[in-house]
Every structure is written in C-alpha cells, then in structure tokens.
Amino acid sequence: MNIEITSLYAGLLALLILLLSYRVVMLRRKLQVGIGSHGEKVLARAIRVHGNAVEYIPICLLLMALAEIQGASSWFMHGTGLALLVGRVLHAAGLSKSVGKSFGRFYGVILTWLVMLVLSGYLIGYFIGFNGAA
Q1: 77: closest CA among 98, 63, 94, 56?
Q2: How far apart are alpha carbons 46 and 49 in whole angstroms?
Q3: Residue 127's closest CA among 73, 83, 84, 70?
Q4: Cα–Cα distance, 61 to 81 (Å, whole number)
C-alpha cells in the first residue's frame, strides 16, 4: 500500500524544518556563533523553535504513515496532516515571537498533541478491532 497522503505532508513539513534550519544558520553567521547560543537570546529561541519541530514532526509522520497503511480514509489523513501542518506553523511563529504565552504557541501545541492523540487512538483501536475479529 502506498502512503501518498503522508508523503505530501512529510514533504511540506520537511520544508518547514528546512526553513527553520536556515533561520538558525543565518543567525549563527550573523552573530558569529559556531555552536550553542553564546547567550544570544534570538539565536537560542531559533534553535529551540527548530528543535521543537524536529522533536514532534517525525513521530507524528510515523503515526500518520501507520494509519494510512492500515487503511485510514483520505479525509482522516488530510485532516490530521493539515492539523499537524497548521499546528507546527502556528507553534513556530508563536515561539519565534515570544518565549512566553502566545496564541501561536498555545494553539500550535494543542493541535500537535491532538493529532498525536487522535492518530494514537486510531492505531490502538485498529489493533483492538483487528485482534477482536480473529
């Protein structure tokens, strides 16, 4: 079975990670910081924004791929993929502007966690239903 829908969102989210990586590299060059942040708050924040994306996106894509392999509907897959993409963009924008509370940071993480929860529930439900039928 193909995982075409997951592949679409993997490509889009990889572009987001690339953009966030580029931002870190440009700040490193501008501030002449090779490793770490050397106390530069804007660089530390950019590093954290990138790190947060790298922490959440792979597990969500793995869950999406597994759900798609198990036969999840295209609307379900696009719904979770779009929610993940919007959530990650919101979170990156919110955290980039403020380390405190922000609309983007709050709703971005809520969307991301919701996607993880829904996909996890789908996969656990699939397993229970599959094993119950045997």
Answers
A1: 63
A2: 5
A3: 70
A4: 8
Taking only the tens place, the pLDDT of each residue in 8-23 is 999 999 999 999 999 9
| Total-model pTM | 0.91
Asked if 40 contacts 31 with a C-beta cutoff of 8 angstroms, the reply is yes
**For 53-108, what is each residue's pLDDT tens digit?**
999 999 999 999 999 999 999 999 999 999 999 999 999 999 888 777 889 999 99
- Listed in sequence order, the residues at least 6 apart from 113 whose beta carbon sits closer than 8 Å to its beta carbon are none
Residue 33 structure tokens: 């910081």
- H runs (alpha helix) in the chain: 4-31, 41-69, 74-97, 103-133
